[in-house]
Amino acid sequence: MTELFGTDGVPRCSWGNSAPDYVAYHDEEWGVPLHGQDELYERLCLESFQSGLSWITILRKRENFRKAFKRFKPAKVAKFGDADVERLMQDASIVRNRAKILAAIKNAQAIASLDTPLDDLLWSFAPSSHKRPATMADVPAITDESKAMAKELKKRGFVFLGPTTCYALMQATGMVDDHVEGCFRAA
Length: 187
Hints:
This protein is mainly α. It contains nine helices and no strands.
């Protein structure tokens, strides 16, 4: 259990003690139920941008992403055109990946065509029960629910959101609580 304790003596999931930026994110955000279209769209985008990278990279660029993507207002991002894509490709303060930038725009457009609020759609995949992991090794990368979410989002025109990214979204937004046993945030 000692690997859970940070230098401040607080027991956390091991990754939450690995960098000061992670301490705040772990303690205040990760696993906290999040609602709201703009808030969920932001997390959806950030999780997509994180694909293949370390989350700390995204976390440290988060404010820059917010500025670059109009505070993640889907109605505004949905109107981005070629000039915006080129502007974003030149912005060294964010992750400059054309496929991920285009996905953020496409996903904003997909939100506009939903017949149900994004909040309701995403939260409909939250499992009715979830077993707390004993260690980080017990945390899955994908689940049946994240597979179903990815499949439904794809059907509705969303891109760059596979089952692994969807599960990370579910963890980050509190749809599942994967704080390990012994972590002070474990409910």
